[in-house]
Protein backbone atom coordinates (compact mmCIF):
# COMPACT_ATOMS: atom_id res chain seq x y z
CA UNK A 1 0.00 0.00 0.00
CA UNK A 2 1.15 3.53 -0.77
CA UNK A 3 0.03 6.72 0.97
CA UNK A 4 0.20 10.10 -0.79
CA UNK A 5 0.18 13.40 1.14
CA UNK A 6 -0.56 16.08 -1.45
CA UNK A 7 -1.12 19.86 -1.69
CA UNK A 8 -3.35 21.06 -4.53
CA UNK A 9 -4.27 24.52 -5.73
CA UNK A 10 -7.59 25.89 -6.88
CA UNK A 11 -6.45 28.27 -9.63
CA UNK A 12 -9.34 30.11 -11.26
CA UNK A 13 -9.74 32.87 -13.79
CA UNK A 14 -13.31 34.02 -14.14
CA UNK A 15 -15.43 30.91 -14.53
CA UNK A 16 -12.48 28.71 -15.61
CA UNK A 17 -10.29 26.44 -13.51
CA UNK A 18 -6.80 25.12 -14.26
CA UNK A 19 -6.49 21.32 -14.42
CA UNK A 20 -3.60 18.96 -15.10
CA UNK A 21 -3.33 15.36 -16.30
CA UNK A 22 -0.74 12.86 -17.33
CA UNK A 23 -0.38 12.92 -21.11
CA UNK A 24 -2.66 10.29 -22.60
CA UNK A 25 -4.66 9.78 -19.39
CA UNK A 26 -8.33 10.63 -19.08
CA UNK A 27 -8.22 11.52 -15.34
CA UNK A 28 -7.54 15.11 -14.36
CA UNK A 29 -6.36 16.70 -11.12
CA UNK A 30 -5.96 20.11 -9.58
CA UNK A 31 -2.36 21.33 -9.95
CA UNK A 32 0.03 20.53 -7.13
CA UNK A 33 1.95 17.59 -5.83
CA UNK A 34 3.48 15.63 -2.99
CA UNK A 35 4.42 17.30 0.27
CA UNK A 36 7.95 16.38 1.30
CA UNK A 37 8.80 15.42 4.87
CA UNK A 38 9.31 18.55 6.97
CA UNK A 39 7.69 20.81 4.35
CA UNK A 40 4.50 22.76 4.97
CA UNK A 41 1.62 22.23 2.55
CA UNK A 42 1.59 25.85 1.22
CA UNK A 43 5.36 25.76 0.60
CA UNK A 44 5.05 22.38 -1.14
CA UNK A 45 2.25 23.69 -3.35
CA UNK A 46 4.21 26.78 -4.42
CA UNK A 47 7.28 24.60 -5.10
CA UNK A 48 5.33 22.04 -7.15
CA UNK A 49 3.59 24.73 -9.25
CA UNK A 50 6.93 26.34 -10.06
CA UNK A 51 8.67 23.01 -10.80
CA UNK A 52 5.87 21.69 -12.99
CA UNK A 53 4.95 24.81 -14.97
CA UNK A 54 7.03 27.81 -13.82
CA UNK A 55 3.92 29.20 -12.11
CA UNK A 56 4.70 31.86 -9.53
CA UNK A 57 1.99 31.36 -6.96
CA UNK A 58 0.65 33.21 -3.96
CA UNK A 59 -0.83 30.36 -1.92
CA UNK A 60 -3.79 31.69 0.02
CA UNK A 61 -6.50 30.37 2.29
CA UNK A 62 -6.94 26.70 3.16
CA UNK A 63 -10.14 25.49 1.46
CA UNK A 64 -10.34 21.96 2.82
CA UNK A 65 -9.29 18.40 2.19
CA UNK A 66 -10.30 15.45 0.05
CA UNK A 67 -9.34 11.85 0.60
CA UNK A 68 -9.33 9.12 -2.00
CA UNK A 69 -8.30 5.52 -2.56
CA UNK A 70 -7.75 3.39 -5.67
CA UNK A 71 -5.79 0.48 -7.06
CA UNK A 72 -2.66 0.97 -9.16
CA UNK A 73 -1.37 -2.19 -10.80
CA UNK A 74 -3.32 -4.16 -8.18
CA UNK A 75 -1.74 -2.28 -5.26
CA UNK A 76 -3.90 -0.18 -2.89
CA UNK A 77 -3.22 3.56 -2.97
CA UNK A 78 -4.58 6.26 -0.63
CA UNK A 79 -4.20 10.02 -0.60
CA UNK A 80 -5.07 13.10 1.38
CA UNK A 81 -5.28 16.26 -0.75
CA UNK A 82 -4.99 19.57 1.10
CA UNK A 83 -6.66 22.29 -0.99
CA UNK A 84 -5.70 25.95 -1.12
CA UNK A 85 -6.82 29.06 -2.96
CA UNK A 86 -4.02 30.21 -5.27
CA UNK A 87 -3.47 33.58 -6.96
CA UNK A 88 -1.22 33.50 -10.01
CA UNK A 89 -2.18 36.30 -12.39
CA UNK A 90 -2.72 33.66 -15.11
CA UNK A 91 -5.49 34.07 -17.67
CA UNK A 92 -7.62 31.24 -19.01
CA UNK A 93 -6.96 32.70 -22.47
CA UNK A 94 -3.27 31.86 -22.18
CA UNK A 95 -1.89 28.31 -22.29
CA UNK A 96 0.06 26.99 -19.32
CA UNK A 97 3.12 25.13 -20.56
CA UNK A 98 4.34 22.15 -18.56
CA UNK A 99 8.03 21.82 -17.66
CA UNK A 100 7.49 18.06 -17.40
CA UNK A 101 6.86 16.12 -20.61
CA UNK A 102 4.47 13.70 -18.92
CA UNK A 103 2.06 16.45 -17.76
CA UNK A 104 -0.30 18.81 -19.58
CA UNK A 105 -2.16 21.79 -18.13
CA UNK A 106 -5.39 23.26 -19.48
CA UNK A 107 -8.27 25.55 -18.52
CA UNK A 108 -11.86 24.31 -18.42
CA UNK A 109 -15.15 26.06 -17.63
CA UNK A 110 -16.16 25.24 -14.04
CA UNK A 111 -19.71 24.39 -15.09
CA UNK A 112 -18.32 21.67 -17.42
CA UNK A 113 -16.19 19.96 -14.75
CA UNK A 114 -18.15 16.68 -14.98
CA UNK A 115 -16.85 16.22 -18.53
CA UNK A 116 -13.22 16.37 -17.41
CA UNK A 117 -13.04 13.36 -15.06
CA UNK A 118 -11.62 15.32 -12.11
CA UNK A 119 -10.24 13.25 -9.22
CA UNK A 120 -10.74 12.94 -6.37
CA UNK A 121 -14.30 12.83 -7.66
CA UNK A 122 -15.60 14.63 -4.55
CA UNK A 123 -13.91 17.83 -5.81
CA UNK A 124 -16.35 18.16 -8.70
CA UNK A 125 -19.06 19.61 -6.44
CA UNK A 126 -16.56 22.11 -5.02
CA UNK A 127 -15.51 23.29 -8.50
CA UNK A 128 -19.12 23.64 -9.68
CA UNK A 129 -19.81 26.09 -6.82
CA UNK A 130 -17.28 28.50 -8.36
CA UNK A 131 -16.72 30.03 -4.93
CA UNK A 132 -14.85 29.13 -1.78
CA UNK A 133 -17.08 27.47 0.83
CA UNK A 134 -17.69 29.36 4.09
CA UNK A 135 -16.40 26.42 6.11
CA UNK A 136 -13.63 24.00 5.31
CA UNK A 137 -14.54 21.45 2.64
CA UNK A 138 -14.16 17.73 3.30
CA UNK A 139 -14.58 15.27 0.46
CA UNK A 140 -14.11 11.54 0.42
CA UNK A 141 -13.91 8.92 -2.29
CA UNK A 142 -13.57 6.19 0.31
CA UNK A 143 -16.71 4.14 0.97
CA UNK A 144 -18.01 4.32 4.54
CA UNK A 145 -17.40 1.03 6.30
CA UNK A 146 -18.74 0.13 9.71
CA UNK A 147 -16.17 -0.47 12.41
From TrEMBL:
Hydrolase listed as a keyword: yes
Domain Nudix hydrolase stretches: 1-132
The protein, known as: NUDIX domain-containing protein
Pfam assignment, any one: NUDIX
Keywords assigned by UniProt, alphabetized: Hydrolase
Names of required cofactors: Mg(2+)
Signal peptide span: none
UniProt xrefs under InterPro entries: NUDIX_hydrolase-like_dom_sf, NUDIX_hydrolase_dom
PANTHER family named in the record: GDP-MANNOSE MANNOSYL HYDROLASE, MUTT_NUDIX FAMILY PROTEIN
Amino acid sequence: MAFHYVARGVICDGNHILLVRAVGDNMTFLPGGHIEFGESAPVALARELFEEASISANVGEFIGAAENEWLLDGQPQAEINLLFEVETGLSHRDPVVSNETHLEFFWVPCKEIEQWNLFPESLRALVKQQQTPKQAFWGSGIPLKSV
